[in-house]
Design goal:
The protein has about 325 residues and is an alpha/beta fold. It folds into two domains: about 230 residues, Aminopeptidase, CATH 3.40.630; about 70 residues, OB fold (Dihydrolipoamide Acetyltransferase, E2P) (Beta Barrel), CATH 2.40.50. Helix 1 packs across helix 6. The longest helix has 16 residues. It is globular and about 60 Å long. Helix 1 links the parallel strand 2 and strand 3.
Length: about 325
C-alpha cells in the first residue's frame, strides 16, 4: 500500500538535498558509509530518511559529510535508509514519499525480517540489517507532522532515558514502547534489550518542513557524536555557538498508544501535540462508536496523527514524570 497523499497545510521552508554523491559509500551497501579511526571504541551510527519525506536527517548527514567528519575513537557510520521513498519526494505532494509500500519503521522484528513477505522497504531493511547489527550507539533522525518542539523518543528502557539525558537536548524526552503496527528501528534487537549495553535514540526534529528542522537535526547529530566520544571535543563548536542554549529537559512517560480500530476515527479538536488535558475521562476522539478518553489527569497528547488509518497509531497518551 503506498503512503497516503494527505493535505499539507504547512509551508515548505527547507530544501531536500541531493544525496546521490553518497550512494556508493564504502561498505558494499548503497548509501551506508563507515569511517574507522583505527582505535578502540564504540561503533556509532546516525541514520536518516527512515521515512522518505522527513528530510531534515538528510540535511544533517549531508552537512556531516561536507564537514569531512571523522572519528577519533571507534568508528562512525552515516546511513540514508529508505532512499527509494526519498526519490519520490515532491514538495507539492510531500506526504506520498513517507514510504513506497510500507512503513520502514514498523518492520524491525526478527520475525518480520526473516519472514516470507516482500516489499521495497523489507528488501532495504534486509540489506542494511547486518550493518545495523554491528552498531553500538544509534541516532535515528526524524521529524513530525505538526508544529511541535523537538522531542526524543527514548524507548521504554532506563538506558534509553539515560542516553537522552546525556545528550542534553531536546527539552522533551518521551519514553514509549512504540507501535502496535510493528517494531521501530530504534528498538531493533539489542537496542531493545535491557541487558545489552547497545543503545539507540530517535529524535523528532520539529515539523517536517519547518525552517529550523534542518539545523535542529544538525545540532542533534553534533551533540550525539560528542556525547558518544566518537569525535574530537571541539567538533561542531562553531555551529553550536550559533544555536540557542538547550532548555532544561523533562520526561514524559507514555502509558498508551491509541491504535485506530475503525475507518471513521476522528479527533474532537484540532490537536497539534503537547496539549495537557486537565481532567481524566475527557473525550479527545471517537473511533467508530467508541469514545477515546484520557486515562488520568494532566494527560499529555504526543504527536497526534493526520494519517488516521486502521491499525495505525492515532496519538500517544503520557504524563510528566
Amino acid at each position: 500500500m503506498p503512503a497516503p497523499d494527505l493535505p499539507n497545510p504547512y509551508p515548505m521552508e527547507i530544501e531536500a538535498p541531493d544525496i546521490t554523491a553518497y550512494q556508493r559509500g564504502n561498505t558494499g551497501i548503497d548509501y551506508i558509509t563507515r569511517f574507522d579511526s583505527g582505535r578502540p571504541g564504540a561503533h556509532v551510527m546516525i541514520t536518516a530518511l527512515v521515512h522518505g519525506n522527513e528530510i531534515c536527517g538528510a540535511i544533517a548527514l549531508d552537512w556531516l559529510f561536507r564537514q569531512e567528519v571523522r572519528p577519533v575513537a571507534g568508528s562512525l557510520s552515516l546511513g540514508f535508509m529508505n532512499v527509494a521513498a526519498y526519490r519520490l519526494f515532491d514538495p507539492a505532494r510531500p506526504t506520498i514519499s513517507r514510504f513506497v509500500e510500507e512503513d520502514f519503521n514498523r518492520i524491525w522484528s526478527a520475525e518480520t525480517l526473516d519472514g516470507p513477505r516482500r516489499s521495497v522497504e523489507l528488501e532495504r531493511a534486509r540489506a542494511v540489517r547486518p550493518h545495523i547489527g554491528s552498531v553500538d550507539l544509534l541516532l535515528d533522525l526524524h521529524s513530525m507532522q505538526t508544529p511541535n518542539p523537538a522531542l526524543t523518543r527514548a524507548g521504554p528502557l532506563p538506558k534509553g532515558r539515560a542516553l537522552a539525558r546525556a545528550l542534553g537536548m531536546p527539552a522533551h524526552i518521551v519514553c514509549d514502547a512504540g507501535h502496535a503496527a510493528g517494531i521501530r528501528l530504534r528498538d531493533y534487537g539489542a537496542f531493545g534489550d535491557a541487558t545489552s549495553p547497545r543503545n539507540a535514540l530517535l529524535v523528532e526534529c520539529r515539523q517536517h518542513w519547518e525552517a529550523d528542522a534542518g539545523p535542529t537535526a544538525i545540532e542533534t547529530a553534533i551533540r550525539f557524536l560528542l556525547v558518544t566520544g566518537v569525535v574530537a571535543g571541539d567538533f561542531g563548536a562553531e555551529f553550536l555557538a550559533g544555536r540557542p542554549k538547550p532548555a532544561p529537559q523533562s520526561c514524559i512517560e507514555v502509558t498508551e498508544a491509541v491504535t485506530i480500530r475503525s475507518a471513521s476515527f476522528h479527533f474532537l479538536e484540532n490537536y497539534r501535540g503537547m496539549e495537557v488535558i486537565a481532567r481524566a475521562g475527557t473525550a479527545i476522539a471517537v473511533d467508530g462508536d467508541r469514545p477515546v478518553t484520557t486515562p488520568y489527569d494532566d494527560c499529555v497528547l504526543i504527536m497526534p496523527s493526520h494519517r488516521l488509518l486502521p491499525g495505525g497509531t492515532a496519538v500517544r497518551l503520557g504524563r510528566f514524570v
